[in-house]
């Protein structure tokens, strides 16, 4: 009995122990193994980052990835007017290999911080494929393929060019005046000069009284009346008469004959005016009229005989006329004599065959609705390249210089080669004083055109305001040129901000500044700025926003630089650099790029600027693993060899630009996205964040390749925005459990013109200057043991508001909002790495970690080999003991 009991106890003990061994394995041993694997993974992550040598891995210092682009190309650009919606054709994929090169600048082991520089190099990939959502592969399209899209700088150039446009607008307006004056002189002054010389010669031979008596008899052939007595007035008539400004108007002086002839035949009023000028107003009738007829007949006959008032296209003495008027203006026998009839024809009436624009001094052509006078183009061309002008106009250097001097004086063109402005004697129009090109423009800009009356099409009296505005020349000069808010100065841009936004800049007692007060930009406010009436302010506002900005400045940009709202160029240029025509000649400042390649594409190696510097947590040392590979600071390093730091920040965070600094000096370190940094916000007078639509400026804390699987993380979206992920479901990808993170970036809160323009001024926040909005859809999958992001996919879109400058708050479902470019990125753990990770980590966690006995080959985990064998033995032993005990108990029952 006792023996039976002993055997039974042993059998029960075997069963119990046999059951305990697997349970211990399932709970204690497997837990220890899992914890050990996880701890080992953490140690491996830390051990691979805590020393400088860990980061000197060539595979970290130089990495490659693929980036895919799509472009929507405009197919009807030539038909588009401002505000039209273009027709688009989607083109792509354009696939590029991105090589990222890093250089370690500093490694602080104790703090757990690494500082390194980085730059990207892009190369078109001819052998790459992009796979769409349906799994269909598409081969990379050649980067030399032309794409037509909006000229991203065009609106900003219109805004920045307003002051210059107004300045040139004045020049082109004065060119119209110069055209009229040169035409007037050729038509009238040259014959008047010849007539005065003829009269002078007659007087020298016959005496003045005899000349007038003959003129009287020539007029009064029907009577035998005795000629009037000219004795008291002969000297005044022939030599002494002057205008109110002292200009000689006697018949032997240059303008005398045309003045007398131009006043017309004698009448009560005409005779009264003419006699007052020539000293016979005290003579009684009918002798007064007889004297006046004599004076008029002499002058008019001589003037007419020499071709006064003739149609210049029908005369045969243009050469002599030009010589006469140029010699009269320049003096010293400097008359321009052009013997080549073809050259003379071109100088006066030429049209440039290449451009179709006016070239001659008397030629006017229409350029996008703007009158373009050849005299202005002649002066601009001759001043810029005299040799080319000599070739075009077929004249010698001295003749060219004399023509420039003559024409330039009428235009009041400021140039060392040009004398004082020519003065038009207003007595020729029945008025007083003289008028030069500058005075004419200032009078005509805000009032009546003083020579021909009426209103200029390019002045304030235009459209609905015609005939309603009468500014003084002094006020016009203040508004355009000399005042504190002159439109040919920096204030022109502030004026445009007001017109496009409806608000003034933020103003303080010290001027525009962040935190200042913004008020409505209305007629009353503009009137207060310039000291004019509200009606005049309305006309001025209309002149700027309805005429100069949409018509004159675009015409000027097109004329000078062939610039247009749309650009056609290869995709390579769109992405990595093109030399903007408007900015050409400014070195690196003339180059534009959407992506930041190491050099500008097609620039023969011109650097895009200093490399970016990143300061990142290693997750070791003083920085714990919770922020491993998180960004801390970013800035730049003086790497481009120009000896300058692009900017430096003082202790208050204010920026000073183009500061001399040492080679490889780091600068501008900030925790913010560079274009959203506080100094750029301040430079925009605090307008930037409101323009962008969010205040998420902090780059620090954004993830690298490691993220917390269970918590939201901050992600840097290719430098355009910072976004926080939304934690999603647990999924399995390539047999690896992962946690999904997603980002859906709202374009309404991410207007990115501030980054694309990058002026460092309030232009970055100018409404509609470059209305591009950034949208991004991101999918990240994070493995929870390692917290490594093992899958990443993003589609970033750039949407353009085609409504034009000044429009804000777009409807993203409207037709005018169109995607212009897309960026697609994709990365994932490779199949082989997934297999290794599963074998080394996942298969060695959980209750059956021991089944592969520590693994083999790439999946071998040496520390688990022994414990795997022990665990296997415990399972086998436990099952054996249970089996042994059960058999014994069964036999005891049978007995």
What is this structure, in a nutshell?
This protein is an alpha+beta fold. Mean pLDDT is 87; it is low at 14-42, 848-861 and 864-875.
If you had to describe this structure to a student in words, what would you say it looks like?
- With 895 residues, the protein is an alpha+beta fold.
- It has 4 domains: 2-47 and 848-894; 55-151 and 566-670, no CATH class; 166-411, no CATH class; 446-561, no CATH class.
- Helices cover 39% and strands 20% of the residues.
- The strands form 9 sheets. An 11-stranded antiparallel β-sheet has the order 20-17-16-3-2-1-27-26-25-24-23.
- Helix 13 packs across helix 15 (397-411).
- The relative contact order is 0.11.
- The model is unreliable at 14-42, 848-861 and 864-875 (pLDDT under 50).
Low-confidence stretches: 14-42, 848-861, 864-875
Q: What shape does the CA trace take?
A: elongated
Structural class: alpha+beta
- In the sheet with the most strands, the strands line up as 20-17-16-3-2-1-27-26-25-24-23
**How many β-strand stretches?**
27
Helical coverage, percent range: 25-40%
Mean pLDDT: 87
State which percent range the strand residues make up.
15-25%
Distance between the termini: 12 Å
Count of domains: 4
| Integer-rounded radius of gyration | 43 Å
Largest sheet: 11 strands, antiparallel
The number of helical runs is 26
